[in-house]
Specification:
Blueprint (H helix, E strand, L loop, with lengths): L4 H13 L2 H7 L4 H15 L4 E4 L2 E4 L1 H27 L5 E7 L1 H4 L2 H12 L3 E7 L2 H9 L5 E5 L7 E18 L12 H4 L3 E4 L5 H12 L6 E5 L3 H10 L4 E4 L4 H5 L3 E4 L6 E10 L6 H9 L2 E4 L2
Helix pairs in contact: 1-2, 1-3, 1-4, 2-3, 6-12
Length: 301
């Protein structure tokens, strides 16, 4: 059985967006054209891939089975085309990269600048997200490389190198907060304050809770939950709450004097960063070029 790249792209776009209208925009085609491509694919496969609803489209059981294979086929077609272009000397392609927020503030921009200087026709598609979301994206072939702290072993994912980059989670407050002027700030005192934190169950929140429990103290009151780093920083700057984030994410605010770092050894957490890829399949040439521009301290696999 053969598959048409245009039809596969239409199918994957509907899966990702949930509607023909949004998928048509993504694929730069009209809605009738995209709908026709989906119907032709369903007729060729002999199954319904989607359930049609007034508010969008959802996968059928057959569609759920087909979706990962469609992504793989589309990905391999795209990589084959880029590889053939490279043979002809056409230096193009897209680096599909995912990274946690701390890495996107310094490590990724510097490596991206070096790459584009060396190969100006290449493009970079960057996904900034928590490491759980990045892992899902890597396994679903939405990205080809992931930069994140050390992760548990996974049979479908391999760590290929360690980056010349690390950070430290630290406690911080507004320079207008009373603790900013205190000389005897310790763990017990900061845990009596209100905090802004990411939602319970998120990786940073779990790490923070583990450090507090390890110290033998009770968890503090989380007065504000916010998924956005920017929102967390703003809540600290403009309110009387404490925050806990990697230093690269608050570097500019420290520099302009709006927040102050609080030295609480029990709540200081050092992280190293690594590059991950899928354990199966070829790494696209564009991704390999990006790796060449990324400072690494050691090969790990």
């Amino acid at each position: 059985m053969t598959f048409d790249q245009r039809k596969l792209a239409a199918f994957v776009a509907v899966v990702d967006t949930g509607s023909v209208g949004r998928a048509a925009i993504v694929n730069n085609m009209t809605q009738p054209t995209l709908s026709r491509l989906i119907r032709e694919m369903e007729q060729r496969l002999g199954v319904d891939l989607f359930e049609r609803h007034s508010k969008g489209m959802t996968l059928t059981a057959s569609g759920e089975v087909f979706a990962p294979y469609a992504r793989m086929l589309l990905f391999e077609m795209q990589q084959a085309s880029e590889a053939l272009d490279a043979v002809q000397g056409i230096q193009r392609g897209t680096v599909r990269l995912g990274a946690v927020a701390a890495a996107t503030r310094s490590l990724v921009p510097k490596a991206s600048a070096r790459l584009l200087k060396a190969a100006s026709a290449l493009r970079i598609a960057l996904l900034e997200a928590p490491q759980g979301t990045l892992t899902e994206a890597l396994l679903a072939r939405k990205i080809d490389l992931m930069i994140a702290p050390q992760l548990p072993d996974h049979p479908d994912m391999v760590r290929i190198s360690q980056c010349q980059f690390d950070d430290v989670f630290t406690v911080f407050c507004s320079t207008q907060h009373p603790l900013a002027r205190a000389s005897d700030v310790d763990l017990e005192r900061v845990l009596k304050e209100n905090w802004v934190m990411p939602p319970a169950g998120s990786t940073p929140r779990s790490l923070f809770d583990a450090l507090v429990r390890k110290s033998g103290q009770s968890l503090p009151t989380v007065a504000i939950e916010a998924t956005s780093v920017g929102a967390q920083v703003a809540c600290v700057v403009h309110g009387r709450v404490l925050g806990w984030l990697p230093h690269p994410l608050i570097e500019s605010e420290v520099g302009n004097g709006t927040i102050k770092l609080l030295t609480i050894p029990e709540l200081s957490l050092h992280r190293s960063f690594y590059v991950y890829r899928r354990s199966r399949g070829l790494l696209p040439d564009a991704a390999r070029r990006f790796l060449e521009m990324l400072p690494q301290v050691a090969e790990t696999a």
